[in-house]
Automatic annotation (TrEMBL):
<keyword id="KW-0812">Transmembrane</keyword>
<dbReference type="InterPro" id="IPR035906">
    <property type="entry name" value="MetI-like_sf"/>
</dbReference>
<dbReference type="InterPro" id="IPR000515">
    <property type="entry name" value="MetI-like"/>
</dbReference>
<dbReference type="Pfam" id="PF00528">
    <property type="entry name" value="BPD_transp_1"/>
</dbReference>
<protein>
    <submittedName>
        <fullName>Nitrate/nitrite transport system permease protein</fullName>
    </submittedName>
</protein>
<keyword id="KW-1133">Transmembrane helix</keyword>
<feature type="transmembrane region" description="Helical">
    <location>
        <begin position="198"/>
        <end position="218"/>
    </location>
</feature>
<feature type="transmembrane region" description="Helical">
    <location>
        <begin position="52"/>
        <end position="73"/>
    </location>
</feature>
<dbReference type="GO" id="GO:0005886">
    <property type="term" value="C:plasma membrane"/>
</dbReference>
<feature type="transmembrane region" description="Helical">
    <location>
        <begin position="296"/>
        <end position="314"/>
    </location>
</feature>
<feature type="transmembrane region" description="Helical">
    <location>
        <begin position="250"/>
        <end position="276"/>
    </location>
</feature>
<feature type="transmembrane region" description="Helical">
    <location>
        <begin position="169"/>
        <end position="186"/>
    </location>
</feature>
<feature type="domain" description="ABC transmembrane type-1">
    <location>
        <begin position="124"/>
        <end position="318"/>
    </location>
</feature>
<feature type="transmembrane region" description="Helical">
    <location>
        <begin position="124"/>
        <end position="148"/>
    </location>
</feature>
<comment type="similarity">
    <text>Belongs to the binding-protein-dependent transport system permease family.</text>
</comment>
<keyword id="KW-0813">Transport</keyword>
<keyword id="KW-1003">Cell membrane</keyword>
Amino acid sequence: MNAATLRKDEFTMAEPIAAPARIAPPASAPAAARKLPFGLKLPSGKAAFESAWPPLVGIAVFLTLWAMLAPMVETSLGALPGPGDVWNAFVGLLGEYAAARTEAATIEAAGSIYTGPPTFVDQIFTSLQTVGAGFVLASIVAVPLGLVAGMSKRINAAINPLVQIMRPISPLAWLPIVTMVVSASVTSDDPTLPKSFVISAIVVMMCSLWPTLINTAIGTASIDKDLINVGRVLKLGWFARLTKLVLPSALPYIFTGMRLSLGVGWMVLIAAEMLAQNPGLGKFVWDEFQNGNEQSLSRIMVAVVVIGLIGFLLDRVMMVLQQLASRNHAV
């Protein structure tokens, strides 16, 4: 049987083979996946809108009610200022700061020293420096002590009564004691740091270290027992156990305590400055209250709003630092 002759046209297919589909290039990453420096993520437009409109509506409603009800509230200095009056007072305070800076530059260029009174903006920076110093001192004391208390039940039992007794003490009670101690200790006519600054910073430290101390101790004591057992198996030393096991686990508690301490310190500082007449926003509020002119109430309201905004911003900064620290330890 002869094999059939194969011809080339018999291999011709009725339909050509389709070219393989090209894989479409990946679409650009959505906004939610785009990362900012330090590992932070940029939210999508929809997510940003959903998170932004409720507080914006709440603020708008509050300002509307404020503007409507303020004229109905009478004080010894006239009607309560509305949002427009407070804004005008804020612009005036900024104008005073700009004029003071111009005058200071002229005087210093002539070789003299500017000795004018501090402006509202100067008082803001003074308060921020003071609360920063007090917060750092509180953290230096509270974090190590909280770690030791959390790692040792006996030390925790020893200091717990003292913490519970000293924690509720008002800053107004600490202020006279701290003032007398600092005044007796700092006897130089030209100290490196002004007495008023040292007094306010120590009062802030004394009143704000407790949230950090308590949260650090709780976070350290609540570490997973399996991690402790792993450390024992690996025969880790005290310092290695602290840095490798305890700190990463207790870090969220530590930063939560520090956020609370910073908020407490900011509130304490304003009261201490107002009572002791130390430079800062508290003194600005008290001076305006004592002046009692027609603009004083508006300027006090400006200070109140600025104090609240600064407190909010300080809390947001601590929250971002907490997220960065937690992410770095998780990596």
